[in-house]
Design a protein that fits this description.
One of its GO terms (molecular function) is hydrolase activity. Belongs to the AB hydrolase superfamily. AB hydrolase 2 family. The protein is α/β, with parallel strands linked by helices. It has one domain: Rossmann fold, CATH 3.40.50. The chain contains 5 helices and 8 strands; from the N terminus they run E-H-E-E-E-H-E-H-E-E-H-E-H. The protein has a 6-stranded parallel β-sheet with strand order 2-1-5-6-7-8, sandwiched between helices. The chain has a two-stranded antiparallel sheet with strand order 3-4. The longest helix has 22 residues. The protein starts with a strand and ends with a helix.
């Protein structure tokens, strides 16, 4: 059995395999790190190859949280199934989340709602769209965001950092000049440092 399990959560119009190279990069340098990269439960644009955690059609700042809440059951089922498949049940102190974009939104929601008090969470290019309801602050969080992100503005990352910091979470934020809605090598190295310190 591996020491830690890292679950990767992709963004809209993508799939788990897209994040596999990131997970493998970290896995090669961290002994005992198992990785998982499930697909979101809903097809994107009727495709059988790319998926989403919740629909963006007609989404607004006012209805976004409602959609996240509606997606929680499916997100949690994905996690539980992944834990079963990796025989990794019961020890959340050895479980780590990593999300990109909508995957980050769902990861942060899982933490601040109090449903999943995991060891750590790496969030690329996301936002915190949920209120902090959990009384538990044990999850360490690393947020990373490109300053040229035209999909989810870097201000969303900064706002997430301030909200989580004020709520008492151990959270860090790194922003990257010229980086759009993607992941660069500097972020990979920062993520590695974060994982090694858990």
């Amino acid at each position: 059995m591996s020491d830690k399990l890292l679950i990767m959560f992709h963004g809209v119009g993508s799939n788990g395999v897209d994040l596999l190279p990131i997970a493998q990069y970290w896995q090669r340098q961290i002994d005992g790190l198992d990785i998982a990269y499930p697909n979101a439960p809903f097809p994107f644009m009727h495709s059988h190859e790319v998926f989403e955690w919740f629909s963006l059609t007609g989404i607004t700042p006012q209805n976004r949280y409602e959609r996240i809440v509606d997606a929680r059951e499916y997100f949690d089922q994905t996690i539980l199934r992944t834990l079963q498949e990796h025989k990794f049940q019961g020890d959340l102190s050895q479980l780590i989340f990593c999300g990109f974009s909508q995957g980050t939104i769902m990861c942060l929601d899982a933490i601040v709602s109090g449903r999943w008090s995991v060891a750590g969470c790496i969030g690329f290019s996301g936002r915190l769209a949920s209120p902090v309801e959990s009384d538990v602050r044990t999850t360490k969080i690393s947020l990373m965001h490109g300053e040229a992100d035209a999909v989810i503005a870097v201000e969303e990352g900064r706002e997430a950092y301030h909200t989580l910091n004020e709520a008492g979470f151990d959270v860090q934020l790194e922003t990257y000049t010229g980086l759009g809605h993607s992941v660069n090598e500097l972020e990979l190295k920062k993520g590695l440092e974060f994982l090694q310190a858990l």
